[in-house]
Write a structure and sequence with these properties.
The protein is about 10% helix and about 25% strand. It contains two helices and ten strands, in the order ββββαββββαββ. The strands form two sheets. It has an eight-stranded mixed beta sheet. A two-stranded antiparallel ribbon has the order 4-5. The radius of gyration is 16 Å and the shape is globular.
Amino acid sequence: MKSTRIALAALVVASSGLAACNSNVKQSASSSTTAVSVADTTRSTDVSTTAPSPAAETTLPNHALWDQVAFPEGVGPDGTHTAPVPETGVLPDGVYWTIYNGGGQQTPDSTVMQAFFGAECESQAAASGDECLNGIFVPTAPARNITDLPFHDNVYITVSDVTTQLSYWITPAELVAIRSGGTSAGAPSSFDFTPLAWFMTVKDGQITKFEQVWTP
């Protein structure tokens, strides 16, 4: 079935004057609203991207709330896709393309999909009769809603400021708060929560990393 494009930046009033991302790793996504309830839109910016590293540590560095951190890293020009999503059962260790829907503080409600980058973006999109936009293609299926996968006690969570394209470290409690419209005093004045996609790293049945990805 032909997939349509996801507007991962559906709540963003995009500015044509956005500065180039301070990392060469940029992503955008396309998918059908049957997979996630985000309105469709059209993008014209060509963005190169790579799949993130599947490696994940269960002991992660500590940060202060709203510390600026690095943009989610890729695996270089050979990165081709995030982990495939099994139709049933426990998610295997790996990095998944994810939409955050809310949920509990320790058990987020997420829609998990697979994203393809680079040459695989082109081939997978063509096979579906669709387009590889901005270097990333997200099919409508398989996609699963996951509500019982917990955050690791020392989970590494980041959010992206769409105005500055910078990434910041936050806690699970802050993630719930900002999605509901509030932030702590430490948040950048320019920050406004936007439902962009996330790289979700799973290891041993827990989420060890949950990194929001800036996309145009």
